[in-house]
């Protein structure tokens, strides 16, 4: 573990902040780090800035993330990683779909894909406009961006999957990438599977070790460890996973249904 200082804090949305660290990152979009806040806990966070000055983007909602949100520039945290398997850039016409803070790892993916000459369309959704993350960053990277909000306060009213249904009918995407609430990812996968579009999904499970040792994040009944073989999994890999879209396991291993 490296102990490092927070060098910059950026408010991205009402309850979302980006924290940049005094570390040079050599990660890939979709990889994560384990972030330790002394005296509080250690949790996985996707890299929203996987190269250059390392950064993460956090929804300040629960006990750990709220404590992280109280830290200031100059405060210290511990970082392990980057770990896990990130997104693979494949195909030439890409569809990226992000829900809420799930957009965090998709922003650097959009930047990387566009720098490699790929055409990128992104659908970014949130419950309401002040929960939208990285819309401008992804647009500035050169992507065609569509916004959806559940309450219609920005972009089109409805879910990301309402927009993707339209886009998939008109477009000829050859690869899809998604990160967000699992129910959203489950519904999107139904759409892309029906059209035979390869899809990469970034999964969230409760992590303890983060390095493939404890087995807590293993998926029924495949045994795939989300921290090690994931967090980015392909549609094919999920075929063997019976819990996807149904439940996850609490810190004590109890099934929690979505
Ligand atoms: C690979 C990976 C990458 C992640 N990247 C990010 C990121 O970029 N930004 C970010 O804000 N968070 C990210 N998370 C989630 C993060 O690790 C914490 O779970 C989150 O910050 C909540 O922690 P908390 O203690 O603040 O709140 P908690 O009290 O732990 O949780 C708040 C709410 O979320 C629910 N919850 C907690 N854990 C899970 C889970 N595993 N699955 C479903 N629901 C859960 C709880 O029931 C509660 O309702 C990531 C998780 C993983 C596994
Ligand atoms: S969190 Fe321990 S194996 Fe994944």
Can you summarize this structure?
With 258 residues, the protein is an alpha/beta fold. The chain contains six helices and 15 strands.
Please tag this protein with its features.
Elongation Factor Tu (Ef-tu), domain 3, Rossmann fold, 3 domains, 7-stranded mixed sheet, binds flavin-adenine dinucleotide, binds FE2/S2 (inorganic) cluster
Distance between the ends? 33 Å
Structural class: alpha/beta
The CATH superfamily title of the largest domain: Nucleotide-binding domain of ferredoxin-NADP reductase (FNR) module
What does the main sheet amount to?
Answer: 7 strands, mixed
Order of strands across the biggest sheet? 10-9-8-7-11-12-13
Whole-number total of structural domains: 3
Structure commentary:
Helices cover about 20% and strands about 35% of the residues. The chain has about 260 residues and is an alpha/beta fold. It folds into three domains: about 1-85, Elongation Factor Tu (Ef-tu), domain 3 (Beta Barrel), CATH 2.40.30; about 85-200, Rossmann fold (3-Layer(aba) Sandwich), CATH 3.40.50.80; about 205-258, no CATH class. Helix 4 (about 160-170) packs parallel to helix 5. It is globular and about 50 Å long. The two termini are about 35 Å apart. The structure holds flavin-adenine dinucleotide and FE2/S2 (inorganic) cluster.
């Amino acid at each position: 573990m490296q102990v490092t200082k927070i060098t910059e804090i950026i408010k991205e949305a009402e309850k979302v902040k980006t924290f940049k660290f005094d570390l040079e990152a050599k990660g890939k979009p979709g990889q994560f780090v384990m972030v330790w806040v002394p005296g509080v806990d250690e949790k996985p966070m996707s890299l929203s800035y996987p190269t250059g000055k390392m950064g993460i983007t956090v929804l300040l909602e629960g006990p750990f993330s709220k404590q992280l949100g109280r830290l200031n520039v100059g405060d210290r945290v511990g970082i392990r990683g980057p770990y896990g398997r990130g997104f693979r850039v494949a195909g030439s016409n890409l569809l990226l779909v992000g829900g809420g803070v799930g957009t965090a790892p998709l922003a650097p993916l959009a930047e990387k894909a566009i720098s490699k000459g790929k055409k990128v369309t992104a659908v970014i959704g949130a419950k309401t406009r002040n929960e939208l993350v990285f819309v401008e960053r992804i647009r500035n990277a050169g992507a065609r961006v569509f916004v959806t909000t559940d309450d219609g306060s920005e972009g089109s009213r409805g879910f990301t999957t309402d927009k993707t249904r339209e886009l998939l009918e008109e477009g000829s995407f050859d690869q899809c990438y998604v990160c967000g609430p699992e129910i959203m990812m489950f519904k999107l996968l139904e759409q892309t599977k029906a059209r035979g579009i390869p899809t990469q999904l970034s999964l969230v499970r409760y992590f303890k070790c983060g390095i493939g040792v404890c087995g807590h994040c293993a998926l029924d009944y495949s045994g795939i460890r989300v921290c090690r073989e994931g967090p980015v999994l392909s549609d094919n890999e999920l075929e063997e996973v019976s819990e996807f879209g149904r439940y996850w396991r609490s810190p004590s291993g109890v099934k929690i249904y979505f």
